[in-house]
Amino acid sequence: MIRYKLAIFFTSLALVTHAEDFTMNYSASIDANGGPGEFAPYYIAALRNGKFSSARGATLSVSAIKPLDKSKRFSYSFGVEASAQIANNVEYQRFDAKNSSWFTHSENTPRIWLDQLWGEVKFRGVFLWLGMRDFTPALVNRRLSSGDLVESGNARNIPGFRAGFIDFQNIPFTNGWVQIQGEIGYGKAMDNDWQKNHYNYYNEHLNLGWWYNYKRCFFRTKPSQPFSITVGMQAAAQFAGESWWYRDGAAYRHETKQLQIRDFVDMLVIRQGDAYWKGNHVGSWDFQARYRLKNDSEIKAYFQWPWEDGSGIGKLNGMDGLWGIEWVSSKSGVVRGAVVEFMSYMNQSGPIHYEQNDHTGTNMTGHGADGRDNYYNNYWYNGYAHYGMCIGSPMFMSPIYNTNGATTTFLNNRFWGIHAAVEGSILPELSYRVMASYRRYYGTLQIPSITPSNCISTFLEASWRVAKLPGLQINTQIALDCGNPGFGRNFGAMLSIKYSGIFNIKTLKSSPCVL
Q1: How far apart are the C-alpha atoms of 68 and 73, rounded to whole Å?
Q2: Cα separations (Å) of 102 from 95, 99, 253, 323, 406?
Q3: 358-367, pLDDT tens digit by residue?
Q4: Which of the residues 50, 193, 265, 475 could staple to 496 if both were Cys, CB 3.0 to 4.6 A apart?
Q5: Which helix (H) or strand (E) holds 15?
């Protein structure tokens, strides 16, 4: 039977490769990082799909990807990436209810990771993919920005499926002046064991088995014009699963939200119920204005306004959001791109959460629940994170850094900061990237910090494409954090060696490239 199935597979593969040049992008890399603390510096860990949070370690990764051919009416792609990793242990605190005492325990990352495994089909302007894969932020520059507020590529991938429009598509009868891009997806979180092992079982709550939903819709004016605007919304949600609540080390409540088919519909058409709305909903209003200069360089101004509920959607959270300016050169040079961003999450629709129906007989009038948005946190669900790393902006201190075991919540979601980055090429084979940021954290509105903490993070990267060995690229990174405590006083470095190429299965020939 196995031989029969293999014969069918290879026969099908032969028919496909006979019909077209079947090429695969492949790569192999080794990353080694080191530093004195428990965690890697901020800029080494951030926006890397949760792969490099530990201070010291080595990672061997291999990948093979068949890219999508967007020029064809029908096309398909698939890919796989896996890695083997060794890293230092991190000490977390846990409460022993039996002995009414605290103790520390060591946790480490799994030695083997399946980072990506997916298949995708495209017909005309729509796509459908199944599996898990790296995400590209919808609006901001992943290499230079501080990160998207909804999906930034900072956390481990969530397996699931997604469907939508490939890039932007012209809306009929607008003569190309208005385009649309949108997609919808569902996934299943896989971090149950991670949460069980890292949580302190003392206060707050623990949620396991949650599902994930993501959707967005953007409209863009004609991109061929010198001036173009993009506007739209992103929305994500955690739903289903079961939760346990703890107070002073004692479990006092347990509740299960059984997954139902209707839940998938309710994530798209929100239905009010006894518990207001199903799931933990987060999202952002997004806007970008782009102007193309005569030399084809571009200047972009953009913002993302976060929301957790109706008050945020109605922009009752003041100036909260990410505000940025980006410059992109049309040519490779000493400065190829630059970003400056300001962020503030100090308002959160005010410090008091109020709903008139919860307080009958009062003189206060109004409608809907307002106040204390508590970004990325929720009463029923874990914080908006996967394997401890924030799914949204990494500027919010991810729960993985809470070595006190409060790994289901964001302890510093009220802060403001600035971020700047620049990249370019010193020589044709030598490029660089520099990033720096300052943040001032105030805890949360519910549990404010007695003394606000400052955090300064800096980063320098140099990338060398070895001319004598095409396909080989060597990266060096140095990063520094300092603050009280912020991300702590931390220093670290990383060395990465990567070889990549393109393999033509029809001709059985390989050619080097830099992916």
Answers
A1: 11
A2: 5, 9, 22, 42, 13
A3: 666 666 665 5
A4: 475
A5: helix 2-19
Instruction: Tell which residue, 128, 149, 168, 455, has the closest CA to residue 290.
Output: 168
Structure tokens at 395: 């500027």
**Chain centroid offset of residue 296 CA:** 30
| 257/279 Cα distance (integer angstroms) | 10
Short-list 60, 153, 76, 59, CA closest to 118: 76
The encoded tokens of residue 129 equal 């993919």
pLDDT at 311: 82
Calculate the CA dihedral of residues 399, 402, 404, 409 and round it to 10 degrees.
-30
**Whole-angstrom distance, CA of residue 505 vs CA of residue 515:** 18
What SS3 state is found at 396?
A: coil
Separation CA 34–CA 105 (nearest Å): 22
Sign, CA torsion 9/66/133/515: positive
> d(Cα 284, Cα 504) in Å, to the nearest integer?
42
Selection from 90, 91, 85, 89 nearest residue 48 by Cα: 85
Write the single-letter amino acid at 288.
Q
* Cβ pair 355, 211 in contact under 8 A: no
3-state secondary structure of 401: helix
Number of neighbouring beta carbons within 10 Å of residue 92: 22
Is the dihedral angle over the CA atoms 29, 33, 39, 43 positive or is it negative? negative
The string of DSSP codes covering 217-286 is EEEEE-TTSSEEEEEEEEEEEEE-EEEEEEETTEEEEEEEE---HHHHHHTTS---BTTBSSSEEEEEEE
Task: Judge contact between 195 and 204, C-beta under 8 A.
Answer: no
DSSP character at residue 42: H
Mean pLDDT for the chain overall:
91
Evaluate the CA torsion angle 407, 412, 413, 419 in order and state its sign: negative
> Looking at 218-232, 341-355, 447-461, which range is the least confident one?
341-355
Over the stretch 127-161, which tens digit does the pLDDT of each residue have? 999 999 998 898 999 999 999 999 999 999 999 99
Q: Are 398 and 413 in contact (CB under 8 A)?
A: no
Using CA of residue 259, residue 262, residue 264, residue 267, what is the dihedral sign?
negative
Residue 91 CA, chain-centre distance (Å), reads 25
